[in-house]
Design goal:
By secondary structure, this protein is an alpha/beta fold. Helix content is about 40%, strand content about 15%. The longest helix has 18 residues. Bound molecules: 9-methylguanine.
Length: about 375
């Protein structure tokens, strides 16, 4: 069964859904979630209808011939109630709803432990042409110094990347990328216990980084660029960042277009989670890929609706730091985007992001400090 949470942002969204599903939705649901359930078999549909009869928890507006149901699930779906539902995918659906309304999932994957609150991933670009700090950290010593400084400032993860992913960037050969990344990962690991992620689309680079002490694969292609990447992730059983990107870096910002950006990303995540799990990859972090084949309004829609993705029961990572949508909205150069970046981080945290990928670690740490304090009272 496929299930998707749809956030009803306001009257325009209500009208859109009314038209799409041919149903009447009360304005009462503005600001709430509806759930689109599809591919239901007859058995599942019967269970849902029984639940609808017996309980106020679920109300069904339509069982269409296409097998899609638009449902409103009240926010208080109690765990004890879930226990009484027969053990089917419907029960799994209710468990996910329960999670969705109670808190983000917080897996403890050994060295990567998301139980104790959001983590900071500090960006370490070892490229001559990276979009915001190009060329500054090309030597191993300089890169190491910067990594250790970010750790001292509060980063729990250092994201080492040897290929620029800015729009229009050129492809780098595997050898060149390997030469940039592997010695830096090795040097950091010799000096520190900090988590290291390797920002690469190439399995050879990922494997070398993991062999030198990296912990996480951060692949902006969602492990689709290199056919061997999934095998490496499965073999090392390491966490992977599954990022959404429309197109590829060279051309992705040439007129990107979405009918419904949230829907497209959501379905991409569902498909890729299935595919990765079938390959034995269990530790999946979702990342909507701010700025990767997205217009300004797409980036803003994602940030505003980020919590929709929590329904997929996976931790969420957001990278908004210094990105061009901030520059365009505020009319600021790349070095002047700190406040815009921090505000974006805060919105991401509010939407359930558990890892934020940042350039300015100390400032991000303060943002998280205030954000988490407000959760305590
Ligand atoms: C490498 N890189 C650049 N931007 C990124 C983002 O937003 N997310 C992830 N996972 N990686 C990114």
């Amino acid at each position: 069964m496929r299930s998707r949470a749809i956030y009803i942002s306001g009257p325009a969204r209500i009208t859109e859904l009314q038209n799409r599903f041919n149903v009447t939705i009360s304005p009462f649901y503005s600001g709430r979630f509806l759930f689109e359930l599809s591919s239901l078999d007859a058995e599942q549909e019967k269970i849902l209808l029984d639940i609808d009869r017996l309980s106020p928890v679920l109300r069904i507006w339509e069982t269409s011939t296409k097998g899609t149901i638009l449902a409103a699930v009240h926010e208080a779906v109690a765990a004890s109630y879930i226990e009484r539902i027969p053990d089917t995918e419907i029960r799994d659906f209710f468990s996910r709803v329960h999670h969705f309304y109670s808190a983000s999932v917080k897996p403890d994957w050994g060295r990567l432990n998301l139980v104790d609150g959001p983590l900071i991933m500090g960006i370490l670009n070892v490229t001559p042409d990276s979009f915001s700090d190009g060329g500054k950290f090309l030597s191993v010593d300089k890169a190491l110094e910067h990594a250790l400084q970010m750790e001292a400032d509060g980063a729990q993860i250092i994201d080492v990347g040897g290929e620029s992913t800015r729009p229009g960037a050129r492809l780098v050969s595997a050898d060149e990328e390997l030469d940039r990344v592997a010695p830096v990962v090795k040097a950091i690991r010799e000096k520190s216990d900090v988590l290291i992620s390797v920002d690469t689309r190439k399995s050879i680079v990922a494997k070398a980084a993991l062999d030198n002490g990296a912990d996480i694969i951060n692949d902006i292609s969602g492990l689709r660029f290199d056919p061997d990447m999934e095998a490496v992730a499965a073999e090392y059983d390491c966490p992977v960042v599954l990022m959404h990107m429309k197109g590829e870096p060279g051309t992705m910002q040439n007129n990107p277009w979405y009918d419904d950006v949230m829907r497209e990303i959501y379905l991409f995540f569902e498909d890729r989670i299935d595919a990765l799990q079938n390959k034995g990859i269990r530790k999946i972090i979702l990342d909507p890929g701010i700025g990767f084949g997205k217009r300004i309004e797409d980036n803003l829609t994602i940030l505003r609706n980020l919590k929709d993705f929590r329904f997929l029961n996976r931790p969420i990572l957001v990278g908004a730091s210094r990105k061009s949508f901030i520059g365009k909205i505020l009319n600021k150069n790349v070095d002047d985007r700190l406040y815009g970046s921090l505000t974006s981080h805060l919105i991401a945290l509010e939407g359930g992001a558990q890892i934020i990928r940042v350039h300015e670690v100390g400032a991000a740490k303060d943002t998280i400090g205030i954000y988490t304090s407000t959760r305590l009272f």
